[in-house]
Structures are given as structure tokens and as C-alpha cells.
Design goal:
This protein is an all-alpha fold. 80% of the residues lie in helices and 0% in strands. The longest helix is centred in the middle third of the chain and has 27 residues, at 75-101.
């Protein structure tokens, strides 16, 4: 029974890490949607209204970022847009890793070292996913032939 508990714990940690890596790109829209929903609830929109406002704000954040990626040509502006998505993802990776390693090692120094490694890994993954969202040119099927 002890071995089963260990295996289930490893599977749970693996599942959480997989979710973190796959959903890290959406950290910025999530935070904006959450804060907008909390603001709407505080102004008296109710739980349903605040949920709708938060979902709309998160969707608009993602849509605006993808629209900017399509319209903006200078690479440094695209890098700034990508970093706006990568910074919250890195912070989420740091605190998720810190939450995991606090249960595994007593040394605060090693906890911080592993948390920084986790933040870098999640940040790089988020950057690669955001860079994949930005198309560099027209697709092969969209070329106009004369």
C-alpha cells in the first residue's frame, strides 16, 4: 500500500507539471481575466456577471496579443509582446516548483535554486509556445501566383 501511495504521488506531480507546461502560456490572460472578474464582482456584477466579464477579458487579452503578433513587424516589439506572456509564466513556474520542493527538501537555499530552475524551464517553454503562435510569413497555400 505504501508503494501504491508513492506511485500515485509521482503520477500526481507528473500530471501537475504537464498541466503547468501546457497552460503556462495562458498565465497572462488568466491573471487579467481573474483580476477583471474580481473587480466586476466588487462593483456588484454578481458571480455570473463577474465570470462572464473575466472570461471576456481573458479572451480579449489573448486575441489582442495574437492580433498584434500578426500586425507588428519589428522583431523587438514582438519580443516585448512575447515577454509579456513569458514573465507571468515564469513566476507561475517558480511558485509551482517552490510548492513542490518545499515538501522534499529542508534547505531553503536548494529550494530557491530548484525553483529558479523550474521558472527558467517553464519560461523557456512558454516562450517557445508564444513564438510558435506568431507566424513569420504567409502560409504556402496563401501565396498569390501571377
Amino acid at each position: 500500500m505504501i508503494i501504491l501511495g508513492i506511485l500515485v504521488s509521482i503520477a500526481a506531480i507528473g500530471t501537475m507539471c504537464w498541466l503547468l507546461f501546457n497552460l503556462a502560456v495562458f498565465a497572462l490572460p488568466f491573471f487579467i481575466g481573474l483580476n477583471t472578474g474580481i473587480w466586476a464582482y466588487g462593483t456588484g456584477a454578481g458571480w455570473l456577471g463577474s465570470l462572464l466579464v473575466g472570461l471576456i477579458a481573458a479572451g480579449l487579452t489573448l486575441a489582442v496579443a495574437q492580433g498584434l503578433f500578426m500586425l507588428v513587424r519589428p522583431i523587438w516589439v514582438r519580443l516585448l509582446i512575447a515577454l509579456a506572456f513569458v514573465a507571468p509564466a515564469g513566476m507561475a513556474g517558480f511558485y509551482a516548483t517552490l510548492g513542490i520542493v518545499k515538501h522534499m527538501m529542508p534547505s531553503e537555499t536548494w529550494q530557491l535554486i530548484f525553483s529558479v530552475i523550474g521558472a527558467v524551464a517553464v519560461g523557456v517553454t512558454a516562450f517557445l509556445r508564444v513564438a510558435g503562435m506568431a507566424a513569420t510569413g504567409p502560409a504556402a497555400g496563401n501565396l498569390v501566383r501571377t
